[in-house]
Design brief:
Layout: H1 8-35, H2 41-44, H3 50-103, H4 106-127, E1 130-131, E2 134-135, H5 150-161, H6 167-179, H7 184-188, E3 196-201, E4 204-208, H8 215-228, H9 239-296, H10 300-325, H11 329-332
Antiparallel strand pairs: 1-2, 3-4
Length: 333
Amino acid sequence: MTGARFGDLALALQTRRDLSALKTDAARLTGELASGRRADPARAASGDLGPLSSLARSLTLIEAHAGVVAEAAQTAAAMQSVLERVQGIGAALAPALLAAGSAGGVGFAAAAGTQARAALDDALGALNTRAGGRSVMAGAATDGAAVSDGATLLAAASAAAAGQTTAAGVVQAVNDWFDDPAGFAALGYLGAATGTAFPVAPGRTVTLDVTAADPAVSGVLKGLVSAALLAEGALPGDAVGQGELALAAGTALISADAGLAGLRGRVGTAEARIEAGATTIAAERTALGIRRAEMLAADDFDTATALQQVEQRLELLFTVTARLSRLNLSDFL
């Protein structure tokens, strides 16, 4: 019985196919030997991709939490910076107001009022800070500004204090407007009543609920607005009353400092919880990465042995090909 034989063209094609397959195997095994990881996850998992898929889902979830943690940390840091800035504005202006109140005279009070007007704009600008595209002090309403501009606040406060003839009356009118739900909460504060919750780790959520409407923040704004009314012509011609108003505004700013310190402490506590979440996320990410690396790890000895076998087959194929290429009719006969 005569066996089937390959023609020259078929044999050449078969040789090329074998050579290509052996080169592919050699490249794969060389990469696995260098990286220590299997190039084919399905082969590494013996066809069972369930555990690898579960690990991939867990890693995806961890990466999502890591993104939220980064966003929460950025927001909390910006919030801390805003509160520090507002606290600094009040602390810097208070001595000037107290000095103006002690010195007496319309000129001193008016100058302090002008300084307070600029400080009010600075404070409102700080409260409208955005970080990562989010309005920091607006609670859950992160898309818009947290507070109105200084002109709006002063216009409303001036209307509320209209007709008052004493410094105590002006201060009380301003305080009442800030405390009235139809006052600052409706016209001055533009954010949401609730804060933003950040799921910083599986089963762990941190809520940043400090807003520009917090009493500690509005306490500073009360002092700034009361003092800025001096630049708007409050208590005209009453040098004593204007001095008393400057003194009362300076005292209010000093009193508000403690409230802001407490508020910054709250944010600091939230920052600590966010940092703890970041630590948890990092630990879980490392553990999952190690587990995935173990599942995809290539055994160095087996890989080196397989690579050696492929190299031997390549050498044999090259040898046979070279001998066939030198055949002629006389050698065949």
